[in-house]
């Protein structure tokens, strides 16, 4: 009796793993999408061009050994384009590993990000920590680039973001969930990194600032650096003080920034920023002469540059810092505060209080 | 063993995510969610103090036995059946919403019934054991999963993507609005771990003192605030309302850069598998015992060697009901059902608390229908 039951139980248990086989496609019947690009084609009947980079699994793992193919399809919407793409490949598309989404510059200038974002946020297999960026001049050129340094298909692009691989100071990192929140939030506007192809590599050193839908402003490389430091407090940046005969360069290792908002009749946004670092380049014996003065000079220079960038962003009518949200949070539940803020923001003054502290001359003596 | 009592407090605090409590609260985030928190904290704490104080006076007796002491049989049976309905529907709702979540995030291609079948089989087996086994299983699963869940919560709490402005905005706007009833009912769920004592008091030795009860408001408040405010911090004040499984999306926004799985979501869902199974096991087991208590011949046994066939039957029916529910329901209906359940639970809990106070008074005055056959604590590992 006991034996019979045990046998039956064993049989049942061995049958259990077979359940896993139902409705599940094997890994060798799947194509892993590693980056996806959305472009605006000039065909009004099928305006969306989706380009997917599909990884080809290979047995060897080495630099330059990454193999992939790029497929493109045009359709009236992104979802349809992805469906069409399925008919051009022999395996099921799998988005679970795709962490790079590139929106063509023309797409977000003409059509806005809304369509792409709706698709991205509805697909459950797409990670919320995917990187979203703008492709300049189009997404296809960024998607189809195959850098020589790649070990795995697609990994060189996402190593550029966050601080996973390179810790580039002027690369803005925007995750999908962050983009989604910024699109819906009152008083906080989206910002996206801009990627383009430069000599067989990606160059991601600019940022696009959007209103809720379309691009309003492109920041250049230096402004992006300033933005990154003031808005996100990104570490490992540089601070340059133009000087003769040699620019003085501070390698900032630690940055903290805090925004303080003074409302009232003459609203001021005060950005307190503290930068610590050591000199990476300077004329000899500069620090011995006037350590404190140099710190003040660098701080003043940084403040001026940052203020210019802040006014530029303000004049474009966008708010990637979230000054508006900060204002709303400060001014509790007063009626019409949002309308008031919209009136205030175009006239707001900025004050950047930079506190630079030089930890050392950087010389080994 | 006082720790078994606090296990319940802890796991119900964490479980609120799966009963759609954050969803209900967040959908009312601008009209009365925040202002109902102090009320919920007060209510929850008060209720758990009252229940634990009352059950301390009836050592070794579960709720059905207490009913029997004071009430006529037909009324006791009616009340037992109310208990059965409330407990079992909780299990069914959680099982359905959990298998749905798993279906969405783990394996969208597989049939949702497959997930449900596997989970229902596990719950059926676990719930049909004896009370003592259930208690031990609970302890093991909770010890495994709690530290990692807390780690995820703290990781989210200290993430620099958390937008404190959004949190301040909601907290400020919300506290000035009059409290909303639905939010009070939903928020007080976090504190309702004490309700499990209604059955598991049978396992408590007669000299058990409920010490450290000040932990209850602290634990409850912490889980309540975290499960409400962290998603708001991650998704902003507006976008957070667009999600149904708010916490799954929130944990997906976290990254374990150096972990072997990058998506925290998978770890989170795995841990919530444990918690959901514990929840379903506890609720179904309690429901089952309440149902069995309606029969005259029934003698409460907490450490039976052989599992009686009736256990299998009752839990089998419950598993079947889950399938029926899954067949007829969808996400929208489940949302409504969860909300309805949260409301009913609170009302019934309030009635029960009052009833318990009445029982204590009756005991003092000596109005007892039957004599308290003070049961000697049954043999079992926990007492020794």
Automatic annotation (TrEMBL), chain A:
Residues 25-195 form the Spore germination protein N-terminal domain. It holds the Pfam family Spore_GerAC_N. It is a lipid-anchor. Residues 206-362 form the Spore germination GerAC-like C-terminal domain. Residues 1-20 form the signal peptide. It comes from the Bacteria. Keywords: Germination, Lipoprotein, Membrane, Palmitate, Signal. It is found in: Membrane. The keyword Isomerase does not apply. Belongs to the GerABKC lipoprotein family. This is Ger(X)C family spore germination C-terminal domain-containing protein. It comes from Cohnella hashimotonis.
TrEMBL record, chain B:
The keyword Nucleotide-binding does not apply. This is Spore germination protein. InterPro entries: Spore_GerAB. The chain crosses the membrane at residues 7-26, 32-50, 71-98, 110-128, 140-158, 178-200, 212-234, 264-284, 305-328, 340-361. Pfam families: Spore_permease (PF03845). It comes from the Bacteria. The keyword Transmembrane helix applies. It comes from Cohnella hashimotonis.
């Amino acid at each position: 009796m006991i034996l019979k039951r045990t046998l039956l139980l064993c049989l049942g248990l061995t049958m259990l793993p077979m359940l896993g086989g139902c409705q599940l496609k094997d890994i060798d019947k799947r194509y892993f999408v590693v980056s996806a690009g959305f472009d605006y084609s000039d065909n009004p009947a099928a305006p969306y061009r989706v380009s997917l980079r599909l990884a080809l699994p290979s047995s060897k793992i080495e630099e330059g050994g990454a193999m992939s193919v790029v497929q493109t399809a045009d359709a009236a919407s992104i979802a349809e384009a992805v469906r069409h793409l399925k008919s051009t490949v022999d395996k099921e598309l799998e988005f679970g590993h795709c962490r790079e989404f590139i929106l063509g510059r023309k797409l977000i200038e003409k059509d806005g990000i809304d369509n792409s974002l709706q698709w991205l946020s509805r697909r459950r297999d797409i990670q919320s920590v995917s990187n979203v960026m703008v492709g300049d001049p189009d997404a296809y050129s960024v998607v189809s680039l195959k850098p020589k340094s790649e070990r795995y298909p697609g990994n060189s692009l996402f190593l550029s973001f966050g601080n996973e691989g390179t810790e580039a100071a002027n690369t803005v990192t925007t995750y999908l969930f962050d983009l989604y929140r910024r699109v819906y939030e009152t008083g906080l506007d989206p910002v996206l990194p801009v990627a383009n192809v430069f000599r067989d590599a990606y160059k991601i050193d600019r940022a696009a600032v959007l209103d809720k839908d379309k691009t309003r402003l492109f920041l250049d490389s230096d402004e992006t650096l300033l933005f990154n430091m003031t808005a996100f407090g990104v570490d490992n940046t540089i601070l340059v003080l133009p000087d003769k005969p040699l620019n003085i360069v501070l390698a900032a290792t630690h940055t903290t920034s805090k925004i303080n908002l003074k409302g009232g009749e003459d609203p001021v946004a005060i950005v307190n920023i503290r930068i610590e670092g050591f000199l990476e380049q300077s004329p000899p014996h500069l620090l011995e002469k006037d350590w404190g003065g140099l710190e003040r000079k660098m701080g003043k220079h940084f403040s001026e540059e940052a203020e210019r960038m802040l006014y530029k962003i303000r004049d474009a009518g966008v708010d990637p810092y979230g000054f508006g949200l900060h204002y709303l949070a400060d001014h509790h539940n007063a009626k019409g505060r949002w309308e008031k803020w919209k009136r205030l923001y175009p006239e707001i003054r900025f004050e950047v209080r930079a506190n630079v502290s030089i930890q050392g001359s950087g010389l080994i003596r | 063993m006082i720790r078994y009592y606090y296990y319940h407090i802890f796991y119900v605090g964490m479980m609120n995510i799966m009963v759609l409590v954050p969803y209900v609260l967040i959908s009312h985030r601008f009209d009365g969610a925040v202002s109902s928190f102090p009320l919920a904290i007060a209510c929850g704490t008060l209720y758990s103090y009252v229940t634990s104080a009352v059950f301390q006076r009836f050592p070794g007796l579960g709720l059905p036995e207490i009913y029997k002491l004071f009430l006529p049989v037909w009324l006791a049976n009616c009340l037992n059946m109310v208990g059965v309905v409330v407990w079992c529907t909780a299990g069914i709702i959680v099982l359905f919403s959990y298998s749905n979540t798993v279906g969405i995030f783990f394996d969208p291609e597989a049939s949702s019934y497959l997930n449900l079948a596997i989970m229902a089989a596990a719950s059926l087996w676990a719930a049909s054991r004896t009370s003592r086994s259930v208690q031990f299983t609970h302890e093991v699963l909770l010890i495994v999963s709690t530290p990692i869940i807390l780690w995820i919560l703290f990781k989210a709490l200290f993430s620099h993507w958390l937008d404190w402005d959004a949190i301040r905005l909601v907290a400020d706007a919300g506290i000035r609005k009059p409290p909303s009833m639905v939010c009070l009912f939903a928020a007080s769920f976090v504190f309702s771990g004490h309700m499990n004592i209604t059955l598991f008091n049978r396992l408590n030795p007669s000299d058990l003192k409920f010490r450290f009860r000040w932990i209850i408001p602290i634990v409850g408040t912490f889980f309540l605030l975290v499960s409400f405010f962290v998603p708001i911090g991650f998704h902003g004040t507006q976008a957070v309302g667009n999600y149904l499984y708010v916490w799954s999306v929130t944990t997906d926004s976290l990254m374990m850069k150096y972990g072997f799985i990058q998506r925290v979501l998978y770890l989170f869902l795995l841990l919530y598998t444990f918690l959901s199974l514990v929840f379903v096991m506890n609720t179904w087991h309690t429901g089952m015992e309440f149902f069995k208590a309606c029969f005259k011949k029934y003698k409460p046994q907490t450490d039976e060697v052989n599992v009686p066939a009736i256990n299998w039957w009752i839990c089998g029916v419950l598993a079947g009901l889950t399938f029926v529910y899954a067949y007829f329901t969808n996400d929208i209906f489940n949302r409504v059902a969860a909300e309805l359940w949260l409301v009913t639970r609170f009302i019934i809990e309030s009635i029960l608390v009052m009833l318990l106070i009445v029982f204590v008074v009756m005991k003092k005055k000596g109005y007892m229908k039957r004599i308290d056959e003070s049961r000697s604590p049954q043999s079992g590992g926990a007492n020794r």
